[in-house]
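Per reviewer request, we include the raw input and output of the structure prediction for the construct analysed in the revised manuscript.
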Amino acid sequence: MKIYISLRVLILILLIQAAGFFMPPVFAQSTRKSASSELNCTDCHTCEVPTARVPCLKSCPRTVMVHQTSKHNIGEAPDKILLDNLVDIYKSVHFDHRLHAQMAEMGGDCAACHHYSPPGHIPPCSECHSPVSESTDLQKPNLKGAYHRQCLACHVEWSHETKCVVCHVVNETGGVPEGSADPTDIMGKSHPVITVPMKRVYYTDEKAGPVVTFQHKEHIDLFGFRCVDCHRKENCSNCHDLQQSSRIAKTQEEVHAICNDCHAGDQCTKCHDTKERPGFTHNKTAGRSTHITTSSIAGPAIRPESGYRK
């Protein structure tokens, strides 16, 4: 009898678990009102009931704005927009939206300025970009950075300058003096001080000497290098690119071109070794008297105009 009851209980438990397994999944949109609750799932998914295990996602639509599937016409565009969130040195900006929308028709339509967003409501910049500099993500700058990125991208092409008065009128009744405005400050956020690394160790395909130890701080302290003396043709994304896979590796020629400014006449073994090298010390590295000067360490003459060796 006990075995019979136990079997019935076991079968009942299995039936309950099976029922739960075949129940449709619960989604956030069905349990909580959200901004995306009115969206049609098929805008992004190829199936009617996407799940975490089988999301059946369409290709990313960012390259073609969803807004353009239900084409907006110029008559829908607001005439002028008052940008008054960041009033201090200058007065509010009266942005001629319709004029710019008409010009955009000759190029990328709304996508020339607007990010991808779901159909319907086109959010203003301030809906996502905060006036306060909080984010460290360059893909989402603060509000000042977002405004300036949009405007300067086109305006600099024909004006070749970033004078504030092209768009701004000086605020005569408040704020700080006009002379304190920095026309190069498009982000409204100072870059933090960069900590100089002690060294960088690179592992190359060179069979005879695969390890290159670059004493970074030593080069700065001994020869007075500035960042721009070695880091050329680089931009913010070299350090802040969140999609590491999108970075393009430098060729051997590009890597050696930086070092060859000073080391063109040196043998490969000057940098390449089979193991990591220690930093420079007079006793161990030079193996000579402690009266060695900086100029004798480097080799030939130092270029007086730059303070480092060619």
